[in-house]
Amino acid sequence: MSEKQFKVVVVGIAGVGKTSLLERVAFNNFEMYKKPTIGVDFFPYTAKLPDGNEVVMQLWDTAGQERYAQLNSAYWRAADAIIAVFDATSTYSLESACQYLHKIYEDFGGSKIDPALHPIRVLLANKIDLPRGESTEDAQRDIATNPSGTCGPVTFYGRCSALTGEGVVDVFERIAGKLLIAQFDRKVYKQRSEVLISSGHLESIVDKCSC
Ligand SMILES: Nc1nc2c(ncn2[C@@H]2O[C@H](COP(=O)(O)OP(=O)(O)OP(=O)(O)O)[C@@H](O)[C@H]2O)c(=O)[nH]1
Ligand SMILES: [Mg+2]
Questions:
Q1: What is the pLDDT of residues 103-137, one digit of tens each?
Q2: pTM here?
Q3: More confidently predicted of 193 and 117
Q4: Does the CB atom of residue 167 touch ligand 1 within 6 A?
Q5: Which residue, by CA, sits nearest to atom 13 of ligand 1?
Q6: CB of 161 within 8 A of CB of 127?
Q7: Under CATH, which architecture does the 6-198 domain have?
């Protein structure tokens, strides 16, 4: 079992199915009529990987309604992973999910920061049980073939249905695996920085910097 409880924040506009997704993965439950989330809710979840590893997560369910949008940036601070959810039948929700991912990437320091220090970023289509219009399919195909193009760097693109459960556990297992790898990368990054600092190398870089 992982020593750390990983913080996983779920974002996306209202009605894309964030709460439904988390209720499906945490409790294997689905309700057709749900109240909008107010503020933030938490769901505990432990992913069990095929190799026997268990990864403990705290899933943060944010409110998609516009009036809560300002609050969200406080929630994703110190997140280990971000899931930006969209409704597979809505191109608008896909564009919004990409905007969230882009903003979060910039908030964490964008390309100025070592990739090891960024959270895992997942773009996730929900409601794949519903039929999609042609333009939505085209937009999703474009994103799927190059998700990093419009959303900033994306760790992976997933598809699921909270209603049927299709793809849900897979997505969280995949995130769990990536979290373990990211934890290892961060340790390596920290050790490398410590070696550079103790050898005086970092100070000499800072000395030469005109910034
Ligand atoms: N067909 C279908 N409907 C879904 C699915 N997931 C959620 N829904 C429905 O979509 C509606 C909104 O779901 P919520 O989970 O409340 O959406 P949300 O993103 O949490 O919304 P906010 O809390 O307002 O941000 C509900 O009526 C759900 O039953 C899905 O995979 N398929
Ligand atoms: Mg909700």
A1: 999 999 998 988 888 999 999 999 999 998 777 88
A2: 0.89
A3: 117
A4: no
A5: 17
A6: yes
A7: 3-Layer(aba) Sandwich (3.40)
